[in-house]
Amino acid sequence: MKRLLLVFTLLVLVLPMTNMTEAQDTEVSLRVFAERNDIYIGAAAWTQHLDVPEHREILAREFNMFTPEHEAKFCMISSARGEYDFSRFDQLVEFAEENDMVIHGHTLIWHACSPDWVENGDFSRDEAIEILKEHITTVVTRYKGRIKYWDVVNEVFDGAALRDTAWLRFIGPEYIEMAYQFAHEADPDALLLYNDYGAEDMNGKSDAIYEMAQDFLNRGIPIHGIGLQSHFNVDSINFTSVAENIARIGELGLEVQFTEVDIKYLGETDDEILRRQARDYYRLLEVCLDAENCTAFIVWGVSDRFSWLRDPAYFDNPTVQPLLFSEDYQPKPAYFALMDLLMRRVGATSVLSDDAIAAILNDPVEEVALPDATFADPNQLAPDSVPGVAYYAPMGVTITLDGDLSDWENIPRVTVDKGTLDGPGAESYEFAVAVDDTNLYFMANVTDSNVQYGEYGVEDWYQTDSIEFYINATGNLAAAAYEPGIVQIGMLAENATQPDTPLVGGGSSDTIVVSIAAVESETGYIIEASVPLVSDIWTITPEHMGVIGFQTHLNGSSGSGRDTKFIWSAADSQDQSWTNPSLFGQLIFWDGSQ
Ligand code: XIL
After folding, report:
1. DSSP letters for 111-147
2. 3-state secondary structure of 298
3. Annotated catalytic, 155?
4. Which of 419, 446, 442 is nearest to 430 (CA)?
5. Which of 77, 88, 260 to mutate to test the pocket of ligand 1 (most atoms within 8 A of CB)?
């Protein structure tokens, strides 16, 4: 395996990426490209799975990290104090070593697999500490130098509180830090993780885990990372929140691993479900690849046939299909999606065409039939907009950025006064858009009796009075993630009092030059802005009835942070445009001379 990998790497270096040779083709696997992305791709298994030839083969071929799914746990290896049977644990470790897989030990302490003799014991605090130490020392010492990562304790939180476990009753909360100390003493080189479920994104439980880790670090208790189990449902992952959680853990100097990934769907699985599952796998791996401290992506099984979620004892859904390989070991769309991501990231030619991966990632947008264009006022330069869906922007209009709205006359205006927050931060705003041959112009006229200047700076622009417009000029209105050609432009009301430096924030707004003229007005403030039609990230060529993605928001504050959020596009009911551009509406160019 080692030799083949080396040959492969050399080939890639000397050959142009587009000419895949046969040798390269045969070496396309998750593990090869995970290595090139500098992360581990892992899988969990039981010894009995190794008896299935396809299962063994896929494990060895596709994964470079291995987790014992169940047979390393305390209840599985110890039937009485001091008595251990390591035969199955050994088999798994040997299999992993034979196949050059890094071992992720799972797990030393878990309430759900604590031996009866512990659970039903009647121990003094000191005795219980002795038992805890004996167990951890015995297991970690046995595999010293061979198991790189250990999930030392698993699932000790129940929500944000400590779970009621036998160890908690015997010892008190200190049992957790003791476990880490004992593991560290037994193998000072092992990297020690805390592992849990439901704490992947920002929430009360992940707050509690973060605080525990921070406290351990402050007090010198050895901990090196957090395992996010990642037992998810299709369509339910808040990727940006997961990314935020990983980032804060990274700020503590800790690693993160996705340790038990499976993505299930409870209804009947069809092709569309498999697509959405593939999309979610892709986006989750993407979060890991984007985070420097995320070091592993481990799936909780190989084939749907053996998923733990099919076990009546746990989940009892005999048809659930949460993994990367089907019951008969065929790679599923989720497998190809991960492969695609790992390959494209290192500049290799993907196993999937551009269209194939786009079809996986892009949710079909509902076609909105636009009503016939109507003109409320015959002098209007473009038709009325379709509320929350489409705005007709006139072409060939001359606008000067000066805070004076007289040149916006006869350009349709839309009033926005609804969204996800309806506080006293602002009353409403009207906006308009127009284009000439070189620029796209945006105007917002805000009614706000209490404009905040200087409350927040450009970093936190969305916490205070500010106006946003968004453009998706990629031609793909279904794009569900930001990419070059999609921008969010957030402009502080404070531009009105500091005209010299445009105060602009928002996703990718630094990829485009935004010109701004802002003024205070009798009823609030006015912002005019423009972006060039031709730039590094896009070439917008307005044509009559041509469409680009467009969105606009207002943030309002009455003095203590954002309390108002108005949103134009009806598709964006949850204030998610900053992360998901498929929620934008349409900007339709209108050539009045036609
Ligand atoms: C599960 C295994 O997948 C099953 O095969 C076994 O019967 C019970 O344990 N969270 C964890 C894992 O940390 O250890 C669990 O694994 C799944 C939930």
Report:
1. GGG--HHHHT----HHHHHHHHHHHHHHHHHHTTTTE
2. strand
3. yes
4. 446
5. 260
Which architecture characterizes domain 390-590 according to CATH?
Sandwich (2.60)
pLDDT (tens digit per residue) in 140-198: 999 999 999 999 999 999 999 999 999 999 999 999 999 999 999 999 999 999 999 99
432 and 414 Cβ atoms separated by less than 8 Å: yes
CA-CA distance, 178 to 136, in Å (whole number)? 10
Residue in 70, 196, 306 to alter for ligand 1 test, most ligand atoms within 8 A of Cβ: 70
For the CA of 300, the closest atom of ligand 1 is 3
On the question of pLDDT at 491 being above 80, the answer is yes
Work out whether strand 466-472 and strand 486-492 pair parallel, antiparallel, or are unpaired. antiparallel
Catalytic hit among 27, 35, 71, 155: 155
- Residue 310 tokens, joined: 């099919």
**Catalytic: 177?**
no
Poorest-confidence range of 208-212, 478-482, 542-546, 578-582?
478-482
Q: Whose CA is nearest to atom 8 of ligand 1?
A: 70
> Residues in the chain, how many?
594
pLDDT higher than 70, residue 1:
no
Query: pTM for this structure?
Result: 0.69
Does the domain at 39-306 match CATH 3.30.420.40? Answer given as: no
What does the domain layout of the chain look like in residue ranges?
39-306, 390-590
Using CA atoms, how far apart are residues 145 and 513, in angstroms rounded to an integer? 54
Burial degree of 564 (CB within 10 A; 0-12, 13-18, 19+): buried
Are both 39-306 and 390-590 of the same fold?
no
Taking CA atoms only, the protein residue closest to ligand 1 atom 9 is 70
